[in-house]
Structures are given as C-alpha cells and as structure tokens.
Amino acid sequence: MAPQTSIPPAANILGTIGTICWCVQLLPQIWRNWRTKSTEGLPATMMFLWSASGVPFGIYAIVQNFNIPLQVQPQCFCFLCGVSWAQCLVYGRKWRAWTVTLLYSCILLVYAALQAGLVFAIRPAYARGTEWPVLFIGIIAFIVLLSGYFPIPFELIKRRGRVVGIDFIFLGIDWFGAFFSLVSLVAQEEFDALFGTLYALCCAIEMSMVASHLIWMMRTKKFRKLAKDAGVTFDEHPECVAWQAKGIDLGAKFRKMVGMKEKADKDADARPETSDEEEHVEAVQMNGAEDQKNTVPNVVAPRPEP
C-alpha cells in the first residue's frame, strides 16, 4: 500500500460524481426530518457513528493522496450526518435547539483538531515507509462507518421489514455515491482494497434495506388495500395496526433484561451485610425465644385440705 503518485482523469471524474452524491445525499433526509418534525425510525446512533467516521475517513484519504473529490467527500459526509444526528436529538429526544447547536459546534471543533493533528503526525512517517498507522486509521474508519448500520436490522425486525423514517431518495443518492466512489478507486493506478470493500458493503447494505421494504409491501398488499378502501392510511386501520404490531422489538427486550438485572443487583447491594459475630448473636437470640416460648410457666400447686 502506497500513496497515489498520479490520478487518472477518469478517477477524478468518477470521484467527483461520487463526492457530489455524498455531499447532497443527506439533504432529502434532513429536509424530511425538518418537514415532519420527527425522526421516528431513523437511528440517532447511526447518524452519530457516520459523522464520527468522517474523521479517520478524511485522515486516510488525505494521507493516501486520493483524488481531491475523495478527500473532500468525508468532510461533507461528516458535517451532514452530524446535522441529521442533531435533528434526532431535537425532534426525537426533545433537546433544546440551542443546546444541540452548542454541543455540535464543539464536536466539530474536536473533529477538525483531531483530523489536522493526526494528518501532520502520520504523513511524515508514511512518507518514510511506515505504513501501519495509516492502515490502523483506515481500519478504524471501516469499523466505525459499518457499525452505523448495526441498528438497522433491529429496526427492520421491529417493524416486520418496513423501512420507517429513512428517506428513499437519500438511500438512492447514497448508493450512487458509494458506487461511483468504488469505481473511482478502480480507475486509479492502484486500487485501495480497504476502502473498495467499504464502498461495496455500503452498496450491498442499502440494497438490502430497499429489498426488505419491497418485501414488506408485497406482504401487506391486502392490508394496504383495506386501508385504502376505508379511506385511511395504513397506520390508522385497526387490522393493519394489529398486523404491524406483531414485530419483535429486540432492543426493548434487551433493555428490559438489562434493567431487570440491574434492579436485582441494586436490591442485593441495598441489603445490609452482617458479620459472623452478628449472625451468631441473632441465632442465640432466636433459640432463646424458642425456648422461652416452649417452656411452661411454674404453677403453685394447691395444698390438700385436711
């Protein structure tokens, strides 16, 4: 693995298309969140992890000397994912807007300082032939970005395959962004296997989300027709709601299980501990009480009459 020495025009063109897609991919999602004032079904964890992945992603792209569009791409991706995450806090968790704005501004400053510092720290060593720091940063970016998809299967299982809260225009643009970025890497003189795998997995995961929703639509065709005939939406028809409610909320089950365990631990910690001496005294007192209970009180016998 070595930094790119020259970038073919085709790689620049394809990378530019991918960057444009990833610069605007989240705008439909952000608009949807703002218009509906809801982020139901959009995992805040996914948005935060995607935003955080922009830092190692950007470091790796800059040090590897990717084409300029691929170096700009992580910065835009990081910022827009952070905006969507902030919306999840405001609309989903009811945080105050100014609090979220201040928090996000501080996070962006930390991201910028961290990325600049690590680029200047790693680049000289990489130029001397020390490759492991760059590879390590790339692996971190790979893991963090893909970890953002982890809540998606739980949401799909909970909603019986239905995609809720995630804009399909966003998914489509995101898919094209990953695809053209992947092709851009192929067009370079040296293909980067790590990020090529990352882009390919992003495409595969997003296609699986679309496929899951299409299967849900086929399964609910009868119910959606019932709702349409009744002049209501799917989520307003009683039969549709009853069918949809049969999904399994694995996250809630896990939180409940952990909560029960924590409660049991707290109850155990709340019970006072007794020493061996105290236990001995208690045992003696209990035995004394039992003896006293079972003992018949002395009775004075009457004298016989003469």
TrEMBL record:
Which residue stretches belong to region Disordered? 263-306
Q: How does this protein sit in the membrane?
A: Multi-pass membrane protein
**Parts of the chain that traverse the membrane:** 6-27, 48-66, 102-126, 132-152, 164-187, 193-216
Composition-biased stretches, type Basic and acidic residues, lie in 263-274
Q: Name one GO cellular component term.
A: membrane
> Has UniProt tagged this entry with the keyword Transmembrane helix?
yes
Tell me what this protein is called: PQ loop repeat protein
List locations, semicolon-separated. Answer: Membrane
InterPro entries per the record?
Answer: LAAT-1, PQ-loop_rpt
Keywords of this entry: Membrane, Transmembrane, Transmembrane helix
Highest taxon in the source lineage:
Eukaryota
